[in-house]
Design a protein that fits this description.
By secondary structure, the chain is an alpha+beta fold. Helix content is 26%, strand content 23%. It contains 7 helices and 11 strands. The strands form 3 sheets. A 5-stranded mixed beta sheet has the order 2-9-5-4-3, covered by helices on one side. Strands 1-7-8-6 form a 4-stranded antiparallel beta sheet. Strands 10-11 form a two-stranded antiparallel sheet. The structure holds zinc ion.
Length: 272
Amino acid sequence: MPELPEVETIKSDLEKVILNKKITDIVIHRASVIKEPGLKKFKSLLINSWCKKIIRRGKLLAIEIITHQKEIYFLAVHMRMTGQLVYGKEDPKSRVSFKLSNGFYLCYNDQRTLGELRLVKDIRGLSVIKNMGPEPLGEDFKADDFIRDISVRAARIKPLLLDQKFIAGIGNIYAVEALFSSKINPAKKACDLNAREAKVLFKNIKGTLRKAIKCRGSSFSNYRDGYGNKGTFSENFYVYGRKGLPCLVCENSIQRIKLGGRGTYFCSKCQK
Ligand SMILES: [Zn+2]
């Protein structure tokens, strides 16, 4: 599932190629991924509109467009498990392809079709945005607030990091990697972390996400960037997907447990 670094990579890739391009046609192969408005309106609003800006909030990407009637709309793309937004030639496997004025396409691919496209007037009105916690790389995400918020939560720390209402953009990969870097056991209750541990975690969340953005994301499963290429952060995983392999720090075997229904990797020696 694309997490913050993957969506940020797609955003910066697409900014270089789709801004100020006009959408001249739309080919819809799987209408069910378009959640609003109806298909007819979706097409009539988007065709002959211009891509003006790209926004990322958490794991959500939105393309701000201006229609031929000079109205502003947002095409919000929630990629969920297997969504991809790839610029290039028309891809017959894509679910929805947007033909651009330069002859290239912006293809929305989605193997499992769990993703969602929405064309709305105001993205702030989307429930996913309304309920979203702070951006971990945003300036208003402060250590003191994080330490305080953690101290009152009885949930286990790893599932709490996945809670998009608590903090935006973190999924399974970056939660386990940030916890490993912080030497914190993922099953520990958030309120049992002391202020020093919470501060280290705060730093490592930012550090892990920044490093992953530099590596253009992690292609552990089917993630692709805006040009259809893989990210390389997967080569830097300490624990994710490494069940039974030796810990890169202490050589103890990496364990996989389930927490909140999600596979969770950690080193029981390094993480207390
Ligand atoms: Zn270890």
